Amino acid sequence: MPLRSMPNLADMGNKSKKYSVPVVVYSPESQLRRPLVMFRSMVKDLSVSRELAWRLFIRNITAQYRQTFLGYLWVFLPPLVTTVTFVFLNAQKIIRISETEIPYPAYVMIGTLLWQGFADAVLSPLKIINQSKSFLAKMHFPREALIMAGIGEVLFSFTIRLVLMFCVFIWYRIPLPATAILAPAGILSMMALGLMFGIVLTPLGVLFQDIEKGLPLILGMWMLLTPVVYPLPTSWPASLLSKLNPVSPLLVTTREMITTGTLTQLHPFLIILGVTMLLLLLGWVLYRLALPHLIERLNI
Fold first, then answer.
1. pLDDT at 30 over 70
2. Residue 218's CB: how many other CB atoms inside 10 A?
3. At what angle do helices 266-298 and 183-207 cross, to 10 degrees?
4. What does the pLDDT look like over 273-292, one tens digit per residue?
5. How far is CA 57 from CA 50, 63, 133, 142, 240, in A?
6. What does the longest C-alpha to C-alpha distance in the chain come to?
7. d(CA 183, CA 206)
């Protein structure tokens, strides 16, 4: 029998160093005791989770429309149905809508598309967490990948819906003002606000399914209190509700960026945007601290 040479222990040690796997150490000490270390870890996890987020995004988009007859047409149906409904109600004088700066069908369509982007962002975090329960406790990976994948789905759906917006502008011959170049900032600000609400609600939604079931109902009522299908109200108490509604300045300003170019709600828009960025960061911290405990409690 030929003799087999024994492996060199030094070489084995070098190989183990070369192919070492990162070690995760769990400590009972709260991460809030060292905020700078926690922040660096958050930024690092956000950076390394891009590839996983992309794979999750592809998986979810493929699974979402695989077993549907209409496929991606479902992305267009909510804004189309809402627009047709309110245009019909307004034409039949069942509801009375004051004059709008652009043709009413275009006004409703643009407002509905913007609102749908906000609503999708609210629902996204809890939706993707529930979809990923099967491997959350089995695998260690940056949880930020789930949020990034959810954001990708929201942007994907909104990008497809932009086809409807372009058709509206062409059909009604609405000229684009110079402020249209700022529209992406307005759209992203609405999605950021929705994402902030979604992340804050996620811990409760993981524990109680009532949150996930009730969110569509709340969003439906919220839409009626937001100037999506009607101009910004000026009479009390509707005007007060509009001022207290954080979505109103963002939606109105973004629609004005795209259509008229006259930004009547710019100052509230900037205030809401600043507060949203701060609360979004705090929501990220809450999500990072709460999710491991929720996974352990649910034993998923």
1. no
2. 12
3. 30
4. 999 999 999 988 888 888 77
5. 10, 10, 16, 15, 40
6. 98
7. 34
Contact 145, 153 (CB under 8 A): no
The C-alpha atoms of residue 257 and residue 110 are separated, in whole angstroms, by 11
Q: Are 170 and 147 in contact, with CB atoms under 8 Å apart?
A: no
Interatomic CA distance for residues 253 and 186, integer angstroms: 7
* CA–CA dist 116, 83 (Å, integer): 12
**Residue 184 identity (one-letter amino acid):** P
Residue at 217: amino acid letter? L
Which residues lie below 8 Å from residue 108, measured CB to CB, with a gap of 6+?
82, 83, 86, 87, 228, 229
- Average the pLDDT over 5-9 and give the result: 41
Question: How many whole angstroms separate alpha carbon 205 and alpha carbon 211?
Answer: 5
Whole-prediction pTM value? Answer: 0.82
How far apart CA 68 and CA 198 sit, in angstroms, is: 26
